[in-house]
Design brief:
alpha/beta, 4-stranded antiparallel sheet, 17 helices, 17 strands
Length: 478
């Protein structure tokens, strides 16, 4: 609907009625309803950012309104920073600065999620895109893509930009890494799919933390593996118990999340890491460390955790991704492993299908150049929202939790309730929750809930209020 005229995209007034739909329905002044319809069109992508809106007089004539009504609507949009008006250049669609680095969907940031009984979804723990930095990275990738296509290379005239950034990050952690140690994938799940295809057969055993990441459970079950749960304690990992489990089960693969564990947010301490490295030397199992949450360190002033394995480990694999730290829409992940492991994985026919697209690689390389600035802001936001949720939950006598040291969620233990029944009652109050059994290798953990803190404080308040109401109804049903 927008077209290019020189360098300015415009929407003809004649196309506006079709774009806005039945905007007159509802209550309130026409100017407010028109502004709301324009905002919805921006949200839905019908009005792209940077598009110039019709002049007030032209739009008024097309919609059958007084010019003053359109002028008032434009004033509302300017006040809400959804349009920018410049003398002689007209009004263009914009995104409010406060939404440019949101951690949750637009509706939540505008205070709409959960309001007036509206649905509230706490089943997803993902950040939204870092708007400004991502947009700039996309523009740079667009400029670089022709060279990538001409040279039949995913990274064009920056042949190792993405790999170098990933390798440098591992080198800074004391794990020297070069191209031979890396295989790029379209996310962490793609990496786990490759590892499953290479190392698992039907009935192969896989040892995992309990609780653990549900996506890993689904992938390993899909490969026909037999899952062996290694329970976490309230404070973390029992390494001697894990050692005993490995000796008894002799798994083909061991999957651990020791850096800001999903869903608990726990961090394995340095002494436990040293003990784990020592004990793993005696086991013939591929150990996969999922580092997807590693960048979401919410401790203040603490040194980053050291890598869990050794540089010389041939049977240790690290899986990383940008999905939780930057944006899940950018399907870029990687496997860091011994070159022999990388060659084995790269030889699989599935490897090409699970590789990131050339354009995604270019965008990821540009975004990684801005990574620290994005992460600094995100950590501060997450820390504030985590503390707000923890303060609200600490007043509830029927649950307990450990304040997570990182990650995106809090793991809530219920003293006297079944999380399945509680989630069902919460659903009747338009609150969607994920019961604990989704995170269990053996279907247990019915006394737990995962609560993400990626939403703004006022939305978290609404969630806790509805959760409290659901628990009261659960008690009343006994």
């Amino acid at each position: 609907m927008a077209y290019v005229n020189g360098t300015v995209r415009r929407v003809p007034a004649s196309q506006f009625p079709q774009m806005l739909g039945e905007w007159r329905a509802g209550h309130g002044p026409l100017a407010r309803r028109l502004a709301d319809a324009v905002e919805k069109a921006v949200r839905d992508g019908r009005l792209p950012l940077g598009v110039q809106l019709p002049a007030e007089r032209l739009l008024a004539g097309e919609l059958g309104l007084a010019r003053g009504t359109v002028a008032a609507s434009y004033q509302i949009l300017r006040a809400e920073q959804l349009i920018v008006t410049r003398t002689g250049s007209g009004s263009t669609v914009a995104l409010p600065p406060r939404l440019n680095d949101r951690l949750s969907p637009w509706a939540s940031d505008r205070g709409e999620a959960g309001k007036n009984g509206a649905p509230l979804d706490l089943t997803v723990a993902e950040p939204a895109a870092p708007f400004d930095e991502l947009l700039q990275a996309v523009r740079e990738a667009t400029d670089t893509l022709p060279a990538a296509l001409l040279h039949d290379s995913a990274e064009g005239d920056r042949p190792s930009a993405l790999r170098t950034a990933i390798a440098d990050a591992y080198g800074a952690q004391g794990l020297p890494t070069d191209d031979g140690h890396l295989l790029l994938t379209s996310g962490a799940d793609a990496a786990l799919s490759l590892l499953s295809a290479a190392y698992l057969r039907p009935s192969s055993r896989v040892v995992l933390d309990s609780p653990t990441y549900p996506g890993a459970l689904a992938l390993f079950r899909g490969a026909g593996a037999r899952l062996v749960a290694q329970p976490l304690t309230l404070t973390g990992w029992d390494v001697p118990a894990l050692d005993r489990t490995l000796r008894a089960s002799r798994p083909s693969l061991t999957y651990l999340v020791v850096d800001f564990h999903n869903p608990t947010g726990l961090l394995m301490g340095e002494e436990e890491r040293a003990e784990l490295r020592r004990r793993l030397r005696h086991h013939d199992t591929l150990v996969v460390f999922d580092e997807t949450m590693r960048d979401l360190d919410l401790r203040e002033g603490a040194a980053p955790p050291r890598v869990a394995g050794r540089a010389s480990d041939r049977h240790v694999v690290y899986v990383g991704s940008l999905s939780k730290s930057l944006w899940p829409g950018l399907r870029v992940g990687w496997i860091r492993a011994h070159p022999d492991v990388v060659r084995r994985l790269a030889a699989l026919p599935l490897a090409a299908a699970l590789a990131p697209s050339p354009f995604d690689r270019l965008v990821a390389a540009g975004l990684l150049e801005r990574r620290e600035a994005v992460l600094d802001r995100r950590r501060a936001q997450l820390r504030s929202q985590r503390d707000h949720l923890a303060a609200r939950l600490s007043a509830l006598p029927w649950c307990r939790f450990q304040v997570p040291q990182g990650g995106l969620s809090l793991w809530l233990e219920l003293h006297d309730a079944d999380s399945r029944r509680l989630a069902d009652l919460a659903a009747t109050r338009n609150l969607a929750l994920t019961p604990g059994f989704h995170f269990s290798p053996d279907g247990a953990l019915d006394g737990y809930l995962r609560l993400p803190f990626t939403l703004p404080p006022d939305v978290l308040d609404t969630a806790v209020d509805r959760l409290t109401e659901a628990h009261a109804a659960l008690e009343g049903s006994h």
